[in-house]
Write a structure and sequence with these properties.
By secondary structure, the protein is α+β, with helices and mostly antiparallel strands. It has helices spanning 14-20, 31-51, 74-90, 151-154, 223-234, 245-255, 274-287, 318-326; strands at residues 61-65, 71-73, 93-98, 105-106, 113-121, 132-140, 163-169, 173-178, 183-189, 194-199, 210-212, 238-239, 257-261, 291-293, 313-316. The structure holds 6-O-phosphono-alpha-D-fructofuranose.
């Protein structure tokens, strides 16, 4: 036996991958690389706390509402602190918009980037051990470096993102991101404390057999949405909806499917937030060959007007999203 076979290679770490691909980044000075490292560090710490939530008194609700009017889970707050602290210490970010904070957080005026994030999406699933996730979006600031961060730095169209991705805390923990040159997935090896390249060049199937929507609200959907659901049923597609956007999105990205959160009576603009949920996943989805719309137009073309504005979301396999939007005959531009 060749002695080198005794010690099999462990693979490419996230850090080494970032270094190797640094020429992919428009701003190759390494600042964006540092932001990805900061996000990876915060996700490792958050992962450890999620995995121990049942053993420590950090599971369950905090007993307070967040800016969204939703019941805050203790881990929502903990994850928010972890990501803000990591990005602050990394030094490359001038501002952060978080689902957990009403206003933008000013960090380092010399920073050239802003981050919009949902530090822990689907956190009501923590206590029942269902996958949850972090979603992040990175923009280059448009205001003068050295000056205060401005709202325009964040209220940019999704098409202006320089990086976006998510962390999925599931049966394994994965970090999936894009910088506009395809989508890459890394799987966390907790015994080594490293993310290793596991899903190079992720691609969405063009079509799929899975549809994800909360049919319990179907009485509140537009008829066009119910017409599409009826078509899915006629084709005997599989209904899969775990109440955790990142988990549903990731499964559909790998296997082929569509996730829909449409307008409802309770959420007339949709439930999901444009800046740090829809835009980030839309960037990943399009980079993997999929499609993301608000039911009428491309998500990445929407000009945001408020940090926490919501949008309907139809995202996933290109042919499925096109079909779903075709039922919106009057207005769809896809
Ligand atoms: P509903 C979690 O609160 C979330 O933002 C997404 O992760 C998930 O897909 C959706 O809301 C679930 O919402 O109204 O179906 O319970």
């Amino acid at each position: 036996m060749n002695k080198s076979e005794l010690a099999l290679p462990v693979g490419t770490t996230l850090d080494r991958f970032i270094k190797k691909k640094q020429d992919d980044f428009t701003y190759a000075t390494g600042e964006l690389s540092q932001i990805l490292r900061d996000i990876a560090l915060a996700s490792k710490i958050t992962n450890r706390e999620i995995n121990r939530a049942g053993l420590l008194d950090i599971g369950g609700a905090l007993g307070e509402m967040n800016v969204q009017g939703e019941e805050q889970q203790k881990l929502d707050v903990i994850a928010n602190i972890r990501f803000i602290r990591a990005l602050t210490n990394g030094g490359e970010v001038c501002g952060i918009v978080s689902e957990e904070d009403e206003d933008m957080i000013e960090i380092n005026r010399q920073g050239k980037y802003v981050v919009a994030m949902d530090p822990l999406d689907g956190s009501s699933n923590i206590d029942v051990n269902v996958s949850i996730g972090t979603i992040f979006s990175v923009y280059r600031r448009v205001s003068e470096i050295g000056g205060p961060v401005e709202i325009e730095d964040v209220l940019q169209k999704g098409s202006e993102q320089v990086a976006a991705g998510y962390v999925l805390y599931g049966s394994s923990t994965m970090l999936v991101y894009t910088t506009g040159n395809g989508v890459t997935g890394f799987t966390y090896e907790p015994s080594l404390g490293e993310f290793f390249l596991s899903h190079p060049n992720m691609k969405s199937p063009e079509d799929g057999k899975i549809y994800s929507i909360n049919e319990g609200s179907s009485s509140e959907f537009d008829q066009s949405v119910n017409d599409y659901i009826a078509e899915c049923k006629s084709k005997k597609l599989s209904a899969r909806y775990i109440g955790s956007l990142v988990g549903d999105f990731h499964r559909n990205l790998l296997k082929g499917g569509i996730y829909i959160y449409p307008r409802t009576d309770k959420s007339p603009d949709g439930k999901l937030r444009l800046l740090y949920e829809c835009n980030a996943l839309a960037f990943v989805c399009e980079q993997a060959g999929g499609l993301a719309t608000d039911g009428e137009g491309r998500i990445l073309d929407i000009k945001p007007t408020a940090f926490h504005q919501r949008s309907p979301l139809f995202i996933g396999a290109k042919k499925m999203v096109e079909k779903a939007c075709s039922y919106n005959k009057a207005t769809a531009t896809i």
